[in-house]
Amino acid sequence: MERGKEIKGVLTAQAQRPSRSLLPSGRTLLDEFLDGGLRWGELSEWGLPWGQGLRDIILWFLARSQKEAELPCWTLWVYSQSEMRVNPLAWYARGLNLDWLRFVNAEHPVKDLKPLFLSEVFRILVIDDDGRLSADDCAFLARQARRHQQAIFLLRPYHLSERRGNVWARTRINCWHDFGQQRVFAKIIKGHRPRQITWPFEKL
Fold it and tell me: Is 51 inside any structural domain?
């Protein structure tokens, strides 16, 4: 019986494989900025300082993936900040189907949750890291993304360096909120031609 469940789980995960090569956000300006969206099978890294509402940008991709999926597109959101609290109603209000979304707290995500990363059940993984991931961890995540054709988002609570950084991330993007202008900025520093866009904060 357990073997049957395992086989069924694998087949279900395989059926979730995206028919498109790109994962769009569903926001025209951002998708054009990314030449259509993020590529499946890759690790992307985002500089998203806390307290600026910037993680809503990631939710656009998750909501879009759920709308386009013929079968449940399972997403795992891993956060290492023990003080962080998830508000399900806020996520639901942003268009997320909570039935397809799971949250887990782990101080050392790759070490503590390795069986989950080795599995192909979750199509999208978001790792909200506080700086504990090593270069080896990032290399492992990039390999798993490529192997299972997953989209893995690595979120950093600070601006990414433009001179040096994570060589395993195919796309690296910094985002910030200019409170004086009440506008959000996004700047590509790796993966596409370097460029920058901005939009009103109320559009988040």
Answer: yes
Nearest to 12, CA basis, from 97, 94, 70: 70
The residue length of the chain stands at 204
- Whether the Cβ atoms of residue 109 and residue 129 lie closer than 8 Å to each other: yes
Q: Which two tokens stand for residue 164?
A: 């040096």
For residue 164, name the pLDDT band (cuts at 50, 70, 90).
confident
Place of tokens 């909501």: 63
pLDDT in the model for residue 130: 85
**In whole angstroms, what is the distance from residue 27 CA to residue 61 CA?**
9
Which residue in the block uniquely carries the two structure tokens 């101080």?
107
Q: State which H helix or E strand residue 28 sits in.
A: helix 28-33
Give which of 203, 184, 195, 38 is closest to 124, Cα–Cα.
38
84 part of a folded domain: yes
d(CA 112, CA 99): 23
What CATH number does residue 111 fall under? Answer: 3.40.50.300
If one counts the domains in the chain, the total is 1
User: How far apart (Å, rounded) are the C-alpha atoms in residues 201 and 98?
Assistant: 25
pLDDT in tens, 38-64: 999 999 999 999 888 899 999 999 999
Domain assignment present for residue 2? The answer is no
Taking only the tens place, the pLDDT of each residue in 93-114 is 989 999 999 999 998 999 999 9
Reported as a single tens digit per residue, the pLDDT across 139-150 is 999 999 999 999
